[in-house]
Amino acid sequence: MSKILVLAEKPSVGRDLARVLRCNRKNSGYLEGDRYVVTWALGHLVTLADPEVYSEKYKNWNLEDLPMLPEKLKLVVIKQSGKQFNIVKAQMNRKDIGEIVIATDSGREGELVARWIIEKARIKKPLKRLWISSQTDKSIINGFKNLKPSSKYDNLYRAAQCRAEADWVVGLNITRALTCKYNAQLTAGRVQSATLAMIVNREKEINDFKPKDYYEITAKSDKFKLKWVDRKSGRANIFNKDKADGIVKKINGKICTVVDVVENDKRKFSPALYDLTELQRDANRIFNYSAKETLSIMQRLYENYKILTYPRTDSRYISTDVFETIPERLKAISLGSYKKFADRIMSKKINAHKGFVDNGKIGDHHAIIPTEERVQLSRLSTEEMNIYDLVVKRFLAVMLPPYEYVQTSVKADIAGELFTAVGNVVKSKGWKMVYERGAGMEAEGEKDSQLLPKVKKGDIVNIRAVELNKLQTKPPARFNEATLLSAMENPQKYVKLDSESAKTLGETGGIGTVATRADIIEKLFNMFYVEKRGREIVPTSKGKQLVDLVPEGLKSPLMTAKWEKELEDISTGNEKPDIFSKKMRKYAVRLVEDVKKSKDKFVYDNVTGKKCPHCGKYMLQVKGKSGMMYICQDRECGYRENISRFTNVRCPECHKKLELRGEGQGKIYVCPNCSFREKADLFNKRFKESENKLNRKDVSKYMKKIKKENEKPINSSLAEALSKLKLK
Q1: How would you classify residue 29: left for phi > 0, otherwise alpha for psi between -120 and 50, otherwise beta?
Q2: CATH 2.120.10.30 applies to domain 213-270+403-472
Q3: pTM of full prediction above 0.70
Q4: Binding residues
Q5: What is the residue-averaged pLDDT of the chain?
Q6: Overall average pLDDT of the 651-659 stretch
Q7: Active-site residue, from 214, 289, 310, 494
Q8: Which residues are known binding-site members for Mg(2+)?
Q9: Where does this protein hold Mg(2+) (predicted)?
């Protein structure tokens, strides 16, 4: 009897599948049972070949040799994972293996991982597909009972292949062109460039902004306050000082009469379930986690603990068949503070309303929700518990009653001028009860809401003070990771576009995908195009100059959105891959020509007086995510040296976070905010308790790193090629 080979994407997932499929015999790189053999990739085992594979001349970077357009892009085995590829290939070629089940991640990139391995290994055996949204035993068993024909996902593979080849053709050509033209380590790409352009443009708006003074008038009674509003426009802002002074003079000492009181019953329903981007936004807003950190935590909760469903989803709804499993999921989370809410939901018939159950709003995967797996909360780290808590509370909230309150609006007249007040009285907390403890959804924040006394039309209100408040208009806020994710998801709200282009962007889901946005943001930091000031993301001089150097089309969010639309059409069989590939090649030629013709210059403005110990050139000072460093300006050299690292230790004088500078006995703590400086060993003796806390945190982080069973996936030929470059 022939056996079935199961190909997983990572070792940890492979071991879970093997356990469920009773593959107990351990071997190097695979596990075997009576019916199944389970093996795994390490992320990508196969990728697109580097340029030098096609021609010797591409070993050196020369502008004259561009564009690079091989007739057919070749696949190569990634060197560092070659051993595992040979193991996988050997298992696929076994005579007793009659069928292969693709069990890589259920998405576009996961499909590419498996298909490239199969293609490179030249396997022609029958293929089936495991397509599941959680890693629980029940989900795996059901998945194997309902395996799909691999042909159902052929178009998804073609779309993934087109994406990878387009990134190679466009990304490598524009990166080499910019780097050679300006003798600096510069990279560009369809999503990266559009995202960076939004950050740079926002900074320009802030720098160009000229604040204007405006005034607001408030009338205070003993129990509440009213605000002046313009009778025609309904606005409270007055930009003319003389007009504001005139109104204050006119109403001072005059009678305030209530002219209208309106009470409205209001209902507010829970926000929709989480997709990855919304979860990353809330995790950044509430806990200051980066998008990359949130995805990493989610991946552990999905793969290792199996308590949350597939993270890389862009849907905020579940299907009717998943709805049938809700009682089991509620039982699994019926512990701790969640129990009373889960019990309340289960005590009645659960309503599958359109706020969270909608088959038409689900793509490859449904929203992120808890699985049927019961969890020991004590096993979760603080970070894991925070993310789990967000998902569980949102899951509970969508099934609880709406938040209900009475909104009272009061209108009053003072000497012919209109004043208003708004107040809310809670009738039923509904789903907001879930958020009474811990982070999550803030309390209802209707603007200018206050507790109003009982008043009726015709009442006279005693005004004890009239205030004229001088304010200033504010520039648009800088992006943080949460708002940048919003801008990537809905760029039409952040860039000037015609209505047709804005509509296209809205329909395509913005720039990048839920799976790639975190990596794009991380790359902007790693390439020193942006840096953090507190939570704000600020473009560096390098980032600003790069946006000026990149050809116009590449930094438009519209272009990358159109790419994603075409890739989506390929995945659904509505566009031919060849047409897309030809477009990308023509586009790459045009981009390279634009760079060659450019008269622009690139200038380092962060050159220091310190020389590189390797090549003698002056070094650059840059700010990374973890600290300050020197890096050599020669891209061929690539020497780097740490200056300081950011810590969580607080300054004893101003309480800002300290930097740790120097090496060995020369280490000192320095406050970037005030003049505090002290040798690290003396500081640690004085503040031993604080230092111990820091050490425990550092040790915890290190233990988590080594605990990870999965090697980091290598996601594309472009990423592989860029990783070999010496960063500047």
Answers
A1: left
A2: no
A3: yes
A4: 9, 105
A5: 89
A6: 81
A7: 310
A8: 9, 105
A9: 9, 105
